[in-house]
Amino acid sequence: MTQQIPRGAADALSTRYGLDVAEPVHALLQECELVSLRDGELLCEEGRPSDGLYLLLDGAVSVLKKDARLEDRALAVAQAPAVLGHMGLVGGGKRTASLASRGGVTVARLDATAFDRLMNHDGEAGDALRRVVLAAMLDQQRRAMTDLVRMLQPGADRYPDDATGWGV
Predict the structure, then answer these.
(1) How far is 80 from 69, CA to CA, in rounded Å?
(2) Is 95 part of any domain?
(3) Which residues does the chain have with pLDDT short of 50?
């Protein structure tokens, strides 16, 4: 696909996820569709099929989860650069949260078919995808454990207002 990838997007993602060089990430971005969202638009919705992975290139999104009253509750805010929506593709299930744009947002969307193809591909784009997804999963686990430890402290709020590390 020939698309205008935002300047520095590959470098930012590479730096964020500890990759040595940006070229493989640039190859991955070339496999994606660029999507722009306005404030409040949903990137994906909880309960819907996991149909893509999102590389947040510019802006921020709120991670929303339905509570017991089926009202959306903000769990986190993900800032660019970030990998989003990967767990549904890795685990093969439905979306476990919604993602709503906060202001203008640009993402690179990799559909599920391309995700499956690249996860089993030896080229630069496949290598970058595997490395970025693994790094995102490790980062997600680290952030969740940090928040869990903080919430288990005596006198801590069960759901802190600043829970920005909830696995995005």
Answers:
(1) 31
(2) yes
(3) 1-2, 163-168
DSSP for 61-123 reads EEEEEE-TTS-EEEEEEEESSEEESHHHHHHT-B-SSEEEEEEEEEEEEEEHHHHHHHHT--S
Domain around 146: 9-112+123-151
Cβ atoms within 10 Å, residue 3? 12
* Nearest-5° Cα angle at 103, 99 to 107: 55
Asked whether 75 and 12 are in contact (CB, 8 A), the reply is no
Give me the pLDDT at residue 168, please.
Answer: 36
- 166 lies in a domain? no
Q: What are phi and psi of 137, to 5 degrees?
A: -65, -40
Number of domains forming the structure of the chain: 1
Instruction: Provide the CATH number for the domain around residue 85.
Output: 2.60.120.10
Whole-number pLDDT of residue 65:
94
Give a yes or no: residue 168 inside a domain. no
